[in-house]
Design a protein that fits this description.
This protein has three domains: 2-132 and 280-423, no CATH class; 145-199; 202-262, Metalloproteases ("zincins"), catalytic domain (Zincin-like, 2-Layer Sandwich). Helix content is 73%, strand content 4%. The protein is built from 16 helices and four strands. The chain has helices at 2-29, 44-77, 80-89, 95-128, 136-167, 172-194, 208-221, 257-262, 265-280, 283-308, 311-314, 322-363, 367-380, 388-394, 400-409, 414-423, and strands spanning 202-204, 227-231, 242-245, 252-256. A four-stranded mixed sheet has the order 1-2-4-3. It starts with a helix and ends with a helix. Its cofactor is Zn(2+).
Length: 424
């Protein structure tokens, strides 16, 4: 059985590396003439720079992946896991403390291993291509804040879940799921007010005329956001974005200041209309419901497998603590999850297309969104020529060239617009 799991893991690793390789080759050799919408925005020099940026990221990612694979094999199949499990048990026999210690130390080790890569990406790779605007002091401050927030959430969620396992050994899967649902919804309410301001400064829109247009668009879409804000994302990166966040009375529109620099008002409104489309089409609600149903299923499967005591034997081990078995279960889940990625990506692309159609309905055409996306691709050095297979597996959005062509041909959907108006 250990050989079977090792073989599956190695097979998945080979598939991942093969997909990366064909995508790199296609990006270098499969360049096609760009549609007219890209004229004057992206030329051959910009494409060469985009290729160089993507290739530099690929190289760093390859080193990270090889290191992660080597460490995973050593930990699971090299005898480190049972040693580590016994070592933790030698410090405490408290069920909750030992579980938190087991996963907390692993998370700390993972963080330490990832620090050199994070530093390199920010201060070498992103700096080289003009994206990094973060000082080392700010990077350290963000790291410390993330550690503090992560530690609090880890202790709350992990400790609470372990306590429920101890209190209700025959039905903990249901209690743990319910506990996580409550905490997740609670964080959705609190995050815009307690967590996000720790990293970013939110201020009212600097352009008064833009705020009026944004609120008109919100009213037209039936979204009553409490605040329309811009965020100082330019302190950290040259990348740009916009989002519609929150639930209930804490909904808010947030525009990156970098986005406001790169797009004109009409393009900004089209991008925002797309984000509103996700909310208006129920994508956020669907995603929340789907994730909670999946979490419920995972909790039940975890309870069933952990109760069977079969997990240690699957890796050729005699016994492991509860935390050790949960670790094995999570790793097996990641193997299964790899084959779910194409389905999830397809579902996401479907939602993106629906949000694009909503934006067309709101602003009257797809021209503004198309031109805005082209500008963002130029500024972000996006890969315009992914391999079709790679895009099918990993892309959560339709490939940009295909998306822009669709937007330019897109028309107002009278049926969906009539339905939307009726819902209003």
């Amino acid at each position: 059985m250990p050989l079977l799991f090792l073989s599956v893991y190695l097979l998945i690793t080979v598939i991942r590396f093969a997909l990366d390789w064909i995508n790199i080759r296609h990006r270098q050799q499969g360049r096609q003439p760009l549609p007219a919408a890209f004229a004057g925005q992206i030329d051959e020099q910009r494409l060469d720079r985009s290729d160089a940026y993507a290739l530099a990221g690929d190289r760093v990612g390859l080193v990270e992946d090889i290191l992660a694979v080597a460490l995973t094999i050593a930990f699971l199949f090299g005898g480190i896991l049972p040693w580590y499990d016994q070592w933790i048990a030698g410090y405490t026999d408290n069920f909750i403390v030992s579980g938190l210690l087991f996963f907390g130390l692993l998370a700390l080790i993972q963080l330490l291993i990832g620090l050199p890569f994070s530093l390199y990406k920010n201060f070498v790779l992103e700096e080289r291509f003009g994206f990094n605007r973060m000082s080392f002091k700010l990077w350290c401050a963000d790291l410390l804040k993330s550690l503090l927030i992560g530690s609090v959430l880890f202790t709350l969620l992990g400790g609470g879940a372990l306590a429920l396992v101890q209190i209700a050994p025959q039905s903990w899967w249901l209690w743990v799921w319910g506990f996580w649902v409550v905490v997740t919804l609670f964080l959705l309410y609190l995050s815009p007010y307690l967590i996000e301001p720790l990293f970013f400064k939110f201020t009212p829109l600097a352009k008064a005329d833009l705020e009026i247009e944004v609120r008109d668009l919100l009213e037209k879409a039936g979204a009553h956001a409490g605040k329309v804000l811009q965020v100082d994302a330019s302190r950290r990166s040259g990348h740009s974005n916009a989002y519609f966040t929150g639930i209930g009375k804490v909904k808010r529109v947030v525009l990156f200041d970098t986005l406001m620099e790169q797009l004109d008002n009409k393009e900004l409104l089209a991008v925002l209309a797309h984000e509103l489309g996700h909310w208006r089409c129920g994508h956020l609600r669907q995603q929340l419901i789907k994730s909670q149903i999946m979490a419920l299923l995972v909790c039940w499967l975890a309870f069933t497998l952990l109760s069977s005591q079969l997990l240690p034997g699957w890796l050729g081990l005699e016994q492991l603590s509860f935390a050790g078995q949960v670790f094995i279960l999570g790793w097996i889940g990641s193997l299964i999850g790899f084959f779910w990625i194409p389905v999830s990506s397809w579902w996401s692309r479907r939602h993106e297309r629906q949000a694009d159609q909503f934006a067309i309905n709101m602003v009257g055409s797809g021209q503004e969104l198309a031109s805005g996306l082209v500008k963002l691709a130029r500024e972000n050095l996006s890969n315009l020529f992914p391999h079709p297979l790679y895009a099918a597996v990993y892309y959560s959005h339709p490939p940009l060239v295909e998306r822009v062509l669709w937007l330019q041909k897109g028309k107002v959907d009278a049926v969906s617009l009539k339905k939307f108006s009726a819902d209003q």
